[in-house]
Amino acid sequence: MAFVGDQLAPELALPTENAPGLLGTQLISRLRKEFRVELALRQLLDTPTVADLGVAIVQLQADQADRDGLAQLLEELEDLSDESVERELADPEASDG
Predict the structure, then answer these.
(1) Domain presence at residue 2
(2) Does residue 61 fall inside a structural domain?
(3) What is the pLDDT of residues 64-78, one digit of tens each?
(4) Per-residue DSSP letter, 6
(5) Is residue 77 part of a domain?
């Protein structure tokens, strides 16, 4: 059975290269909006089931979180004064709480 209640079953097959392009494009648009990830049509075609697509989406979200976290750390580093950097380098354990 493809549907369980109002949810898709993980083993449900997704559109492939033989499926209409419009269906794939609509699905990607909805997934981008719902999960806030930049999913490419190729990624959809490379994930044959809903479960596989779920894994791909989680990986994209993790990558985005890593980039966001790194950007925040870099911003914090740029905001440090020279004196703060020198204190941290001299005694890195002093700021551990």
Answers:
(1) no
(2) yes
(3) 888 888 888 888 888
(4) T
(5) yes
